[in-house]
Amino acid sequence: NELYGAGLRGVLPKVPVDFATLEARATAAMPRYVLDYVQGGCGDEHTQRWNAEAFRHWGMVPRMLVDTATRDLTTELFGLALPSPIFMAPIGVTGICTQDGHGDIAAAQASAATGVPLMLSTLSNDPMEAVAKACGDTPAFFQLYTPKDTALAESLVSRAEAAGYKAIVVTLDTWVTGWRPRDLNSGNFPQLRGHVLANYFSDPVFGKLLGHAVADDPAAAVGLWARLFGKVLTWDDLAWLRGATKLPIVLKGICHPDDAARAADAGVDAIYCSNHGGRQANGGVAAIDMLPGVVAAAGDVPVLFDSGVRSGSDVVKALAMGARAVGVGRPYLYGLALGGADGAAHVLRSILAEADLMMAVNGWPTLEAVRAAGAARQG
Ligand code: FNR
């Protein structure tokens, strides 16, 4: 209503409402190294392209004569009532997208404004405690890249718990960075370009391991971060993690149904089907094509999804295919780049507005109705 109403009054949105225009506008506005980092992926990036294109192979069939005058987009996750079924996927070095370098605070403000939860990356440029505050009443989740040093990993987890994050999301597919030609060819490693790795640099255990203040020798701090980044996790490590936190545990990066079944058996609180937006392994199948198998194998365990979500229609399809909540990644970064917190909030609202309209015109008043409608593979 807000968007259509403004359009009728001749007021155009500052940030485009669709992904193609949004990406084109952001591409023109972002410095090259930022664009390479945000838009780039692994190898020749065909997995990344498939992620988005594969949504076009799934279709849904509308129902008529159903009262959809009001729609209910609320969902539940870990006992939390969420106003909508989307969240902001974890993105490291988000500060690269904003003028002031505080992209995580801006993302948190967008979260507070929209009620869309933020999953904060370990590699945020703002300390997790400050980001949690900026999220206001909207719940937030903490994404863990598990450092090799166990005491440091436990410190990050316990800080997240103390700061009020509502779940620990462990990313499994990134103990080492994937083959990213754009960054390799340009020598562009955004993590190392002066963006403060705030969660590490503010951590007391990290400070002890460094042996002196981060400010005294920032290069040594970055070097230590790089040496500590990325423990190779195995199924055996889940017991350690369970003992390290009372928070719900989510495993991010599950695509194989057997892994989903094993994760469910291991008692995790949610399974996050994702291939990291094609940034880690090129040659993988589109994540959306793996979602139905993961959902079937997960049984009662809720499944989160991301990779290739570009619109409200993609969100609704992923929900129809069994996701409990759907992560928005690159689109909100483009929103941040074009309009800071307001730009990111606008992108999230546009996606939700399209999802809501999809439900209105297709005869699905609730998310249960969406799920019952299902999606069929075309061609
Ligand atoms: C990511 N992603 C990511 N995931 C994660 O667990 N921790 C992180 O720090 C990051 N960092 C990151 C940076 C950038 C620039 C991007 C684009 C992505 C992956 C992210 O959570 C999500 O899986 C993808 O963004 C989904 O793909 P699309 O839909 O954005 O293409």
Features:
eight-stranded parallel beta sheet, binds ligand FNR, alpha/beta, 379 residues, Alpha-hydoxy_acid_DH_FMN, globular, oxidoreductase, single chain, TIM Barrel, Alpha-hydroxy-acid oxidizing protein
List the helices and strands and how they pair.
Layout: H1 2-8, H2 19-29, H3 32-39, H4 46-53, E1 58-59, E2 75-77, E3 80-82, E4 86-88, H5 103-114, E5 118-120, H6 128-134, E6 140-144, H7 150-163, E7 168-171, H8 181-186, H9 198-201, H10 204-210, H11 218-228, H12 237-244, E8 249-252, H13 257-265, E9 270-273, H14 287-298, E10 303-305, H15 312-320, E11 325-328, H16 330-362, H17 367-373, E12 376-377
Parallel strand pairs: 4-11, 5-6, 6-7, 7-8, 8-9, 9-10, 10-11
Antiparallel strand pairs: 1-12, 2-3
The structure holds ligand FNR.
Order of helices and strands: HHHHEEEEHEHEHEHHHHHEHEHEHEHHE
Round the Cα radius of gyration to an integer and report it.
20 Å
Q: Got a strand count?
A: 12
CATH topology: TIM Barrel
Number of helices: 17
Low-confidence stretches: none
Biggest pleated-sheet summary: 8 strands, parallel
Looking at CATH, the homologous superfamily is: Aldolase class I
- Cα end-to-end separation: 35 Å
Percent of residues in β-strands = 5-15%
CATH architecture assignment name: Alpha-Beta Barrel
Bulk shape: globular
The CATH class label is Alpha Beta
Determine the mean pLDDT.
Answer: 95
Family: Belongs to the FMN-dependent alpha-hydroxy acid dehydrogenase family.
Protein name: Alpha-hydroxy-acid oxidizing protein
InterPro entries: Aldolase_TIM (IPR013785), Alpha-hydoxy_acid_DH_FMN (IPR012133), FMN-dep_DH (IPR000262), FMN_HAD (IPR037396), FMN_hydac_DH_AS (IPR008259)
Pfam families: FMN_dh
